[in-house]
Amino acid sequence: MRETCLKLSGLLNDLSAGRISAPSAEDRLGPMHQVHDPDGVLQMSEQDPLASVPVRMALTRIAHWPHASEALWSPVLAAPGRLAGLRGPGELNDAVLDAGAAVICHSSAPGGIPAGLCWIPQPVGPAIQWRIIAGNPPLPPPTPAEAGPALRQMMAEVSAELGGLNAISSRRPEAISPRLGKGHRHHDQVLLDLAWTVLEASETGLAASPMLTSHGSRIREEALRRLRASAQDAVTAAASWPR
Length: 243
Prior knowledge:
Number of helices: 7
Distance between the termini: 25 Å
Radius of gyration: 19 Å
Strand content: 5-15%
Shape: globular
């Protein structure tokens, strides 16, 4: 689901900036996407509090929102104990934690798309229904200049810690990162490529069970969790600040 959220955040950034159209964004997102806006947050004329609408209607509304070009969107990679910048309300936090990933407007102009407007994916069979919730403005996501060095430092620290345990490392997954939108710089993609690989590797490591003492297992798990969180921050940073 995080890959889908990463794709949507890039499409919303390009759409808000006028780099792509709503039909093009819909085509790139893929088939079988619907939007449920029970509280009328998007103010669509076709809005029905009980029914979903095709995603193109919501994308068109975003594209024509006043001051849409000032909006910036970010993927949210949340987990228990890690709200990833979310600031409520509780209903939004709980829904994002249940989904594991979402997309949020983290910056906007007065009178524009409200910061805190959140798209939360909910699988419905083979389709995805995006629930729209109005939240509080989130904490600003880290920038690539902040998250890149932090990730590399964390990689060095965790490598040293795990090296001292003499644990047999599992095969590194062949992770292929998604492509960022048109508004991103080359170094944003380079950071995403690294962070995506580290994120996959840390999750693979957490799922493995090497032969270690209970103390060694605890050290290993804590180190990999820190590495995963740092990689999640870097994924978010790479996707959140287009030109």
